[in-house]
Amino acid sequence: MKMYRISDMPRTIPVFPLPGALLLPRARLPLHIFEPRYLQMIDDCLKTEHRLIGMIQPRAQKSSSGRAMQAIGCAGRLTQISETEDRRYMITLSGVCRYRITREVSGFQPYLQADVSWDGFERDLGRTEKDEAFDRPAFLDLLHRYFESQSLSTDWDSLKDAEEELLINSLSMLCPFDPEEKQALLEAPSLATRRETVVTLMEFAMRGGAGEEILQ
Q: What are the backbone angles phi and psi of residue 201, rounded to the nearest 5°?
C-alpha cells in the first residue's frame, strides 16, 4: 500500500457517516454500498489521485455547535471494488490516517464533504505500532471468555499468531461495542491505550458494569 506523509494528505475529503463502522490505520474495512449518494461518492473518489474516504461516527445527539458528526474520524484508501449486477458496490477501505473535521463543506455533491486537519495523527502514517506491555495469554483468555458470553466465534489459531496491532485493532472494529465506545477506541492515543480500553469494554460487557478489578 502507498506510504503517505502529512504533506501528501488532501485538505478536503468525502465523509461517510456510518454508525458502528470503525476504521483504524493499517486495518481494512469491507463495506456494501447501495445508496445512490454513496454510489456517487465512490464514483467520484475513483477519479481522485488519493482515493481517500473519511469514515466518521454520527453523534447520538447534535453537539453544542450543531454538528451531527463526531469531530474525529479515520480516512481510508479505496483499495478494492467490485460491482454487482444491480449496480451496488462491494468495496474495501484500507485505513491510512485519522483526521479532525474543521469545517463541513457545502457543494453540489449529494454526499458530505469536509475540510480536515491531519495534525496530531502523524504516527498513523508510520510503521506498525507495538504494545510493549501486551500480555497475549492473559488477553486471549479474557477474549475467549468474552466471546463465549456474547455467543461469538472466531478462528483462535489465527489470533494466537496475529501481531498485536492487527489483533487489537481488528477486535476494536469487529466486536459489538456501541458507537460511543468505538469512538473512544478510535481516539485512543496509543495502541496500549486502545488495548486497555478493549479490555475494559469486554470486562464490563461480561460483568454488567460491575466495579471489579480490570485486567490490564
A: -65, -40
